[in-house]
Amino acid sequence: MIIGDIADRIVRGVETVQNGVTEALFEPVIRVGITGLSRSGKTVFITSLVANLLDRGRMPQLGASSAITAAYLQPQPDDTVPRFDYETHLSALTAPDPHWPDSTRAVSELRLSFKVQPTGILGAISGPRTVHLDILDYPGEWLLDLGLMEKSYAEWSEASIAAAKSRAQSVDFLTALDAVASDQKHDEPSAKALANSFTTYLKSAREAGYSDCSPGRFLLPGELDGSPVLTFAPLPPSAAKRGSLAREFERRFEAYKREVVKPFFRDHFAKIDRQVVLVDALGAIHAGPKAVEDLRRTLSDILSAFRPGRVGRLLALLGQRRVDRVLFAASKADHIHHSQHPRLTAIMEALVRDAKDRADFSGARTNAMSIAALRATVEETIDHDGQMLDCVRGRTASGKQAAFYPGELPEDPSHILTPARKGAEKWLDGDYEIMRFEPARLTLKPGEGPPHIRLDRAADFLIGDKL
């Protein structure tokens, strides 16, 4: 068994080196990971990005656009990873009665290849070259689990119970927890009942706007639904005697890290060159100060799992990868007037300040911006009782058009982050609202992708230097 493991590692190492040499010398591959917590717009981002890279009429800020002579979709290189269902998602957004596509529930991948004509004398001699863009989509909830790798069961339990006690959604779980003794003898019905109660609480907390709802697979279990590796919950400290509930939960927690989290990191996350982190900052602000602080801490934990920094050419040839560019994007910028976009960007920068500083220090390039991967609204100014309000207008779930004024974001991000850090129950100086808009009905001209806000700038930052 050990000899087989060693041989398998050697084979993987040789394949990695071969792939690295091929990519570095012949057809470069850019691996971009797209993540974000629930409702941040990952599926729409990928769909609109690919559509606008295939038809670049709305991508004036993509500096390398003129060098691209052709772009086309190809089968992704990994036959074991499901293909991102681009065509179905695009059809949902561009149908006569458009609707938002289904959200990300598992890992998927898509390869977009470019024929690029290099400029200058070298380009005239060498002719066009091929550059591949591999886009990896994965649930942000799963990324939360990377922070568990450094925690023991006792540490995770203490943090999870403390968080639950500060959230109204945990009442039933805490009641169930009080009825259980950590050192009681393990029996599966009790274990399953407590795990189900814990899962129900996590889902309710997520719906209420909280971000730190790990383990992530409890929210999106996939093929692991009902398995023992997802049947555990946090427990108060105990001696964890042999055969006790606490000892079994501890064993399953370690199995979860070993069998679920580690393979995900090894097989997918560790291969990423560049990362997009989508954040529904407006949704968190609407949910209140506690949700904003929870989002800030969650982002810090998530981004600490990245391996930011540059890799030298020799290490790149040997297949070593690090995330050398990170884009922090506040999504749904079309839900507010463009005059407030700089304020949203400033809040986004403040939310990810700690992680951004770490990435910058490690040599990675970072950027923060406000975007809308698919613009669903138009802007208008309305006279309301003698006051001119900058509003957005869009299509509601009923199919009717509605104008909406969300309130003004503060110029100083500390007016949002300070009450959040102090644990305030509500905002004292403002009431920030959001409205769910449906996709607008589109009429696309030949050569144009779907309308967006700053998607071309995002693409230029992520891949422009490679094209």
Describe the protein in words:
A 7-stranded mixed sheet has the order 2-3-4-1-5-6-7, with helices on both faces. The two termini are 45 Å apart. Helix 7 runs antiparallel to helix 8 (188-207), helix 10 (281-287) packs antiparallel against helix 11 (289-303) and helix 11 (289-303) packs across helix 15 (414-421). It folds into 2 domains: 2-138 and 269-376 and 442-466, Rossmann fold; 147-264, no CATH class. It is α/β, with parallel strands linked by helices and 467 residues long. The chain contains 16 helices and 10 strands. 40% of the residues lie in helices and 15% in strands. The longest helix has 24 residues, at 2-25. It has helices spanning 2-25, 42-54, 86-94, 120-126, 140-143, 153-165, 171-178, 188-207, 245-267, 281-287, 289-303, 313-317, 341-351, 353-361, 414-421, 455-463, and strands spanning 29-36, 68-74, 108-116, 129-137, 274-279, 325-330, 365-370, 377-384, 387-395, 401-404.
Secondary structure layout:
Elements: H1 2-25, E1 29-36, H2 42-54, E2 68-74, H3 86-94, E3 108-116, H4 120-126, E4 129-137, H5 140-143, H6 153-165, H7 171-178, H8 188-207, H9 245-267, E5 274-279, H10 281-287, H11 289-303, H12 313-317, E6 325-330, H13 341-351, H14 353-361, E7 365-370, E8 377-384, E9 387-395, E10 401-404, H15 414-421, H16 455-463
Parallel strand pairs: 1-4, 1-5, 5-6, 6-7
Antiparallel strand pairs: 2-3, 3-4, 8-9, 9-10
